[in-house]
């Protein structure tokens, strides 16, 4: 006679493992609560995914490269398979990079994928942050996440710098020398910082090993922590969405995380990986064998940093070579001032969420995104920042622009010096006027509808174009945005004639508020009365 336990069907091994894990980690309950979380569907949201996927590619290819790279500045004579370098004295770092490129199976492709993924990673972060900035996705409760993203951008820039400095080739050595010159310009402590970083007089014998530890351990570890925190906050705060029918600050309209969103995300990862691999396979980047090993008395013609470090390079190249002597010490202002301006230009965009929150006094949570045209001042500031970056990027490559466009390098340098102050102002004005023009067009579309291109003749002989009323969904999209009223100080004298003392911060806030939301800074939205009057036929055909 069999027992009941013998009659029961034995659960599959996978199910038993799942039950065991769930009993100890609570995975099933966690998955049940979160795997059906809704994510909105919009193409611009994929920019953040490109950042994530390129970072994963960087980590995977970086692990492979660490297996063959020797982070040492010990001098060796090269006897590898690249014939033009036979018998040349070089560091072990440079020799091992040559070996990866010519002797390790797939090494050159992995090197190029790693470098291209780094460039795309930083570029995607910049574009992703601009999307967040222009749409107002940084507002409460996402200010902390905005700071996390900004720190990821800064750390990504310096991780890239330490990475392309590792091969110890002539180009990267020139970049390291550039950085050392900037460090030396710091008053009082500059020489101490340089000696500490390089282990003696430049170039020393330790900086490759030190950069290697920073590049593969310190910075990626911090970035990994920030990235995990960033994603947790995205999950916790729920995703932002553009205005539309049925979309409010209290819900999310879109697709569930499983299975739809995860399937799309998985496919998109392989698409990003394929594009980066294809670019790496056909476009050579950083051909160190054509440059040779670094020597302090040599410099390569047309030495350029990766694009994201072009801003500090442009600042220093455009800055006049000012020097002052104080108490027997020379202060190199031509390098030190750009060293101070770099974090100011870079950090200006980081503090914007807090400035805007203070000016508006808005403490509410925002989950509906703005259309950039509906916040013209913010959009104009973002465009001005991008224009500033482009000007400085031109300054960082002034010799290359002079060569390829047959221009005077002095003329380009003076353009950058003047453009640093003028171009952002012009970009601000133009961007703001475009936004206001687009607002006026939306205003007319709401009241008069869409132009059909159909010309109709009225009984009394007048020709008019027939307008088609907009659907309710589009009307909602064009009128859902909120328009802030500028802050006013109010009367400074009360009913008893006693003058009220107004704080300087209150005056500043009112002035900034007037500049951002006052007259000629936003086009009033159509009112319900205006819409009903137009649609009733008064003055409308």
Automatic annotation (TrEMBL):
InterPro entries: Cyt_b/b6_N (IPR005797), Cytb/b6-like_sf (IPR027387), Di-haem_cyt_TM (IPR016174)
Keywords from the named record: Membrane, Transmembrane, Transmembrane helix
Organism per entry: Streptomyces spororaveus
Catalytic activity annotation: a quinol + 2 Fe(III)-[cytochrome c](out) = a quinone + 2 Fe(II)-[cytochrome c](out) + 2 H(+)(out)
Parts of the chain that traverse the membrane: 45-70, 116-134, 146-166, 178-199, 211-236, 268-289, 331-355, 375-394, 414-431
EC number per UniProt: 7.1.1.8
Pfam family, one: Cytochrom_B_N_2
Gene3D superfamilies: Cytochrome Bc1 Complex, Chain C (1.20.810.10)
PANTHER family in the record: CYTOCHROME B
Xref: SUPFAM superfamilies: Transmembrane di-heme cytochromes
Name the UniProt record assigns to this protein: Cytochrome bc1 complex cytochrome b subunit
Keyword Membrane: yes
Keyword Repeat in record: no
Gene: qcrB
Cytochrome b/b6 N-terminal region profile domain segment(s): 17-243
Cofactor (UniProt): heme
């Amino acid at each position: 006679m069999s027992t009941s336990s013998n009659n029961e069907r034995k659960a599959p091994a996978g199910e038993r493992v799942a039950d065991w894990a769930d009993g100890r980690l609570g995975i099933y309950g966690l998955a049940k609560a979160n795997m059906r979380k809704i994510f909105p569907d919009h193409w611009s949201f994929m920019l953040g995914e490109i950042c994530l996927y390129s970072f994963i590619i960087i980590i995977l290819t970086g692990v492979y490269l660490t297996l063959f790279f020797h982070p040492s500045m010990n001098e060796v004579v090269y006897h590898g398979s690249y014939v033009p370098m036979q018998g040349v004295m070089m560091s072990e770092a440079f020799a091992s990079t040559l070996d990866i490129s010519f002797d390790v199976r797939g090494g050159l492709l992995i090197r190029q994928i790693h470098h291209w993924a780094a460039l795309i990673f930083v570029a995607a972060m910049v574009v992703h942050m601009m999307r967040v900035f222009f749409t107002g996705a940084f507002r409460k409760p996402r200010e902390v996440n905005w700071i996390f993203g900004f720190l990821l951008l800064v750390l990504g820039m310096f991780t890239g710098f330490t990475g392309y400095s590792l091969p110890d080739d002539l180009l990267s050595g020139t970049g390291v020398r550039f950085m050392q010159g900037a460090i030396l310009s710091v008053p009082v402590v500059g020489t101490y910082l340089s000696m500490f970083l390089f282990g003696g007089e430049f170039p020393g014998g330790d900086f490759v090993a030190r950069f290697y530890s920073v590049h593969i351990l310190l910075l990626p570890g911090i970035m990994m922590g920030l990235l995990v925190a960033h994603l947790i906050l995205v999950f916790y705060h729920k995703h932002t969405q553009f205005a539309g029918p049925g979309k409010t600050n209290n819900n999310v309209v879109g697709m569930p995380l499983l299975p739809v969103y995860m399937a799309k995300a998985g496919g998109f990862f392989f698409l990003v990986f394929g594009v980066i691999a294809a670019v790496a396979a056909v476009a050579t980047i950083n051909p160190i064998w054509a440059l040779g090993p670094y020597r302090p008395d040599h410099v390569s013609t047309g030495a350029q940093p990766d694009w994201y470090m072009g801003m500090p390079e442009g600042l220093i190249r455009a800055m006049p070579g000012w020097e002052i002597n104080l108490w027997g010490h020379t202060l190199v202002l031509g390098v030190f001032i750009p060293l101070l301006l770099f974090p100011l230009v870079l950090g200006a965009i980081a503090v914007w969420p807090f400035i805007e929150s203070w000016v508006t006094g808005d403490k509410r949570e925002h989950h509906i995104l703005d259309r950039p045209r509906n916040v013209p001042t913010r959009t104009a500031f973002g465009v001005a920042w991008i224009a500033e970056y482009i000007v400085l990027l031109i300054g960082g490559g002034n010799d290359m622009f002079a060569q390829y466009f047959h221009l005077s390098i002095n003329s380009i340098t003076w353009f950058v010096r003047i453009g640093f102050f003028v171009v952002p102002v012009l970009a601000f004005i133009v961007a703001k006027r475009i936004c206001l023009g687009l607002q006026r067009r939306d205003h007319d579309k709401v009241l008069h509808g869409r132009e059909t291109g159909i010309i109709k003749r009225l009984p009394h002989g007048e020709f008019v174009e027939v307008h088609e009323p907009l659907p309710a969904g589009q009307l909602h999209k064009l009128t859902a945005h909120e328009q802030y009223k500028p802050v006013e100080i109010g009367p400074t004298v009360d009913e008893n004639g006693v003058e009220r003392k107004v704080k300087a911060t209150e005056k500043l806030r009112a002035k900034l508020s007037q500049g951002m939301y006052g007259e000629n800074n936003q086009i009033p939205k159509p009112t319900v009365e205006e819409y009903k009057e137009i649609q009733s036929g008064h003055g409308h055909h």
